[in-house]
Design a protein that fits this description.
About 20% of the residues lie in helices and about 40% in strands. By secondary structure, it is α+β, with helices and mostly antiparallel strands. The protein folds into two domains: about 35 residues; about 140 residues, Nucleoside Triphosphate Pyrophosphohydrolase (Alpha-Beta Complex). Strands 4, 5, 6, 7, 9, 10 and 12 form a seven-stranded mixed beta sheet that branches. Strands 1-2-3 form a three-stranded antiparallel beta sheet, with no helix packed on it. A hairpin with a 4-residue loop joins strand 1 and strand 2. The longest helix has 16 residues. The protein is elongated, with a radius of gyration of 18 Å. The termini are far apart.
C-alpha cells in the first residue's frame, strides 16, 4: 500500500541536509506527522581494488559517532556532476590516487524510512598514484588493505559505516562471483 502525503514543511535547511515534517496517512490507518531527512545531493563512493595491492581505504575518525574506522573514498555529488564523475573526483581528492575506469556496482537508499539520501557505488581495478591527497583533512592515513584483512576488519567492527560496508561487500561478491579469491 502506498502512503498518502498530504503536505510537508521544512523545519531546518542547510547546504548539507534539511529536516522536513511530512503530513502522511497510511491508507485505512492513521494520519500523522513524520520527520524526513532530505539530502540535497547524492553521494558516490569508490572501491579501488588493485590485484597486487588490495583495496585503497581511508582510516578516519567520525565525530558524529566518535568512532575510528576504515572507509572507501566517498563524497557528495556536486551540481553539474554525474555520480561516476563524483566518485572519481572524491577518490582522487581523498587519496591522491586517480582511479581507472569505473564500473557501477550498486545504488541504494541507506535510510529509506526516514531519508531520501542516495548512495552510488563504483569499482575499479586500476589506479595511478599522482601525489598527496588534495584534501588531507579527510583521513589520518591511507592504506592498501588485502581482502582477507578487510573481512577481518569488518568482523572486528572497524569497517562500520553503511556506504563502505555495502560497497565492499558488493565488490567482494562480484570478485568471488568472477573467480577472484
Amino acid at each position: 500500500m502506498k502512503w498518502i502525503v498530504h503536505g510537508e514543511r521544512m523545519i531546518y535547511e542547510s547546504e548539507w541536509v534539511s529536516l522536513a515534517l511530512t503530513d502522511i496517512e497510511i491508507p485505512g490507518g492513521p494520519r500523522f506527522d513524520h520527520h524526513v531527512v532530505r539530502m540535497p545531493a547524492e553521494a558516490s563512493g569508490t572501491v579501488i581494488d588493485v590485484a597486487d595491492r588490495g583495496v585503497l581505504l581511508l582510516w578516519r575518525h567520525r565525530f558524529t559517532t566518535d568512532t575510528w574506522g576504515w572507509e572507501v573514498p566517498a563524497g557528495r555529488v556536486d551540481d553539474g556532476e554525474t555520480p561516476i564523475e563524483a566518485a572519481a573526483r572524491e577518490a582522487f581528492e581523498e587519496t591522491g590516487w586517480r582511479p581507472g575506469e569505473l564500473e557501477p556496482i550498486g545504488r541504494y537508499f541507506p535510510y529509506n524510512g526516514t531519508s531520501d539520501g542516495v548512495f552510488n557505488l563504483f569499482r575499479t581495478t586500476s589506479a595511478t598514484y599522482v601525489g598527496d591527497p588534495t584534501d588531507p583533512s579527510e583521513s589520518e592515513r591511507i592504506e592498501w588493505v588485502s581482502w582477507p584483512s578487510i573481512l577481518d576488519e569488518i568482523a572486528a567492527g572497524r569497517i562500520g559505516d553503511g556506504l563502505s560496508l555495502t560497497a565492499l561487500l558488493w565488490a567482494h561478491m562480484n570478485r568471488t562471483r568472477h573467480g577472484a579469491a
